[in-house]
Amino acid sequence: MMVFGLIALIAGAASALMFASIVSGALISLVLVYLAPLPLMLAAIAWGPLCGALGGIVATLVIAGALSPPLALGYGFAFALPAWWLGHLAMLGRPVTLGRPASGTAGSDAASVQVEWYPLGRILLWIAALATLLTAGSLYSLGSDASAISDAMRRGFAKILSMVSETTVTESDPRVGLMVAVIPVLVAASQMATLTLNLWLAAKVAAVSGRLHRPWPDLSSTSLPPMTLVALCVALAFSFFSGMTGILAVVVTTVVMMAYALVGLAVLHTITRDLANRGIWLASAYAILFMFSVSLILLTALGLADAVFGFRERFLRNRQPPPLPTT
């Protein structure tokens, strides 16, 4: 129990220190802030959700004492709570026997009992939901309606552009308008990517250290529930509305499309299995992805096409050997 509490204390202190590094103004602090949920996710995955929750409480208290209670409250909702919940979902499983939950009766065969882990596609949907909530929270922190949020962003971006260009930039400048229109999309995509990356890193560190108490999942088989495509179409339709309805619909559309982009990566890993130089092809694809963010559109299209036409299912079916003759 003492070791358990010490691990929670260390995870919380590490996360708080990474988050508080932003006050230094150093460029590396941006990376540390993005990785602040990592220690808590690792604690939740490797030592259980209770350890991750205790670590989040410790980190919140440290930030409240070192910086300010409002900042600690924001950290708790934006970093500690998502880290704990995603770590809990990653290790959530139930025993099943012959496709049904284990009854626990004496007649059940213990050798046939397996663990059904929480589906990766649903974890991806939870990440999208959390990214939506965090983006909406950051927008509402600027104002209570669309006009107030837009005015606050225009003032802020005009001030930033004036400092960078050393000339006076007005709020009516086209560059300011472009940034106001794009920033909800960028924030939502950033939240989605940050949560996904932190969860993958935490699981990978736990697996390497031998603390991952589940088999490593087949990431290339990740797929979203069928109703996700319907939700995307509805959000895309509402994104043409004005006011907060349109802004929030744009945020939902962005995170769901990011989810399908990640599914597109899974499709890419599946359909390149038979290539001779698979490593080179995948490395080139990731390099293009990091250098040209517009390539996310192609990945999203690939993920959507797989959801509609079932590319991976057809590919895996064609790779199966022909049935043996019966005579």
Concise account of the structure shown:
This protein has helices at residues 2-20, 28-34, 38-47, 49-66, 69-90, 120-140, 146-165, 174-208, 227-238, 243-271, 278-291, 295-309, 311-319, and strands at 93-97, 100-101, 113-117. It is mostly helical and 327 residues long.
What features would you describe in this structure?
- There is one protein chain.
- The chain is mainly alpha-helical and 327 residues long.
- The chain has two domains: 91 residues; 209 residues, no CATH class.
- It is 71% helix and 4% strand.
- The protein has 13 helices and three strands, in the order H-H-H-H-H-E-E-E-H-H-H-H-H-H-H-H.
- Strands 2-1-3 form a three-stranded antiparallel β-sheet, with no helix packed on it.
- A hairpin with a 2-residue loop joins strand 1 and strand 2.
- It is globular, with a radius of gyration of 23 Å.
- 31% of the residues are buried.
